[in-house]
Amino acid sequence: GTLLHDAASFEERFLTPRTIDAVRDLQNAGALFGVATARPESTGLPLINALHPDGGVYLDGALIDLDLQSSDFGLLTSGSLPSDGHVLSVGFPSGRGCEVCRMLLSRIPELRIGLVMNDVRYTNFDVSVYWRTQAFRYTDFTDVPEGMADKIIIFPQAGQESILRPLIPSDFAVGISEGVMWMLMHPRANKADSLHTVCSHLDVPESATVAFGDDRNDIAMLREAGLGVAVANAVPDVLRAADAGCPSNNEDGVARWIEDELSR
Q1: Helix (H) and strand (E) counts for the chain?
Q2: Is the model's pTM score more than 0.70?
């Protein structure tokens, strides 16, 4: 919703040549550029590779790649991280995640819920209702492999949200994407913490950064950045939290903001 144009399906959203060119011109002018997305590697990396950023954040901060030039597709979701430490996982044990899923289902039996780990969704529902290409496996949350999970995803139905919220354990933070999907994650797996991690690695003060966003999971990042910019199609809470604005995603708003700054 920030960089990508709208399309009929999630997977068909796209970058325009104008955005790619603007990012290239920005980097040629000496600025560093990073991408933070809620997407997993399978749908995020092809877009990130088109932009050649200096750092990449997937799954809203559960997976951080500090050296995209050395990363190969599939490496981040192999279940083992590179030994040089350039990929960071901010997750939780899958066993703990399954325990929470079973607890929530015991209280809300019809809840649509799943655990995301290594780019596979272990769910009690067919995820193709929401995503056409993302891999999933049905589970009752007793047979999920051991490992570090990225997040729990929940799609509450009418009447379930008010029951769900007080049941969320204190060792998880809650994010809501596009008003539809709840994400239960490690409290440090978020775009604001990721901004701090990437800035520390690149030796850039957060006060010298500009962040762009459109959804509620961007708000803390916009506030932490030196300048927070909301695209015109952002949700009202983001528009209120931002320091400045730019045109919408479908108008290449971020690219136009970059072009205007470079022309000054």
Answers
A1: 8, 15
A2: yes
